[in-house]
Amino acid sequence: MQILLGLIIGAVVGLGAHFALPHRQLRGAALAPLAGAAAAAVVWTALTWAGLGVDSPILWLVAVLAPAATVLALIPVLSRSRLARDEADRARIGA
User: Fold this and answer.
1) Helix, strand, or coil here: 21?
2) Which of 41, 43, 77, 92 could form a disulfide bond with 66, CB atoms 3.0-4.6 angstroms apart?
3) How are the residues of the chain apportioned to helix, strand and coil, as percentages rounded to the nearest 5?
4) Is 5 helix (H, G, I), strand (E, B) or coil?
5) Percent of the chain at pLDDT exceeding 70
6) What angle do CA 85, 86, 91 make, to 5 degrees?
7) What is the residue-wise DSSP string for 18-80?
8) Which residue, among 60, 84, 83, 77, has the nearest Cα to 17 in the 3D structure?
9) What is the number of other CB atoms lying within 10 angstroms of the CB of residue 33?
């Protein structure tokens, strides 16, 4: 049940990144929050299996930093890929 805390943290970090990063019109509004939640779920699960509890500051720190790193690395790459693919499609159809 405590993993919900990690999921919520990851989704909030992803939502903040969605609005902070450029080209938000090129991606869905759920992409960054879902990526953040997935990253937080993975690290939260791994760290709780490693024996860390909710009272550990390391768990909370990593639950915030992992989604931030994931989203800040993933979203710009996907946005650039989408821009390049759209430009290639425009060139191909002559628009």
Assistant:
1) coil
2) 43
3) 80, 0, 20
4) helix
5) 100
6) 95
7) HHHSS-GGGS-TTHHHHHHHHHHHHHHHHHHHTT--TT-HHHHHHHHHHHHHHHHHHHHHHHH
8) 77
9) 22
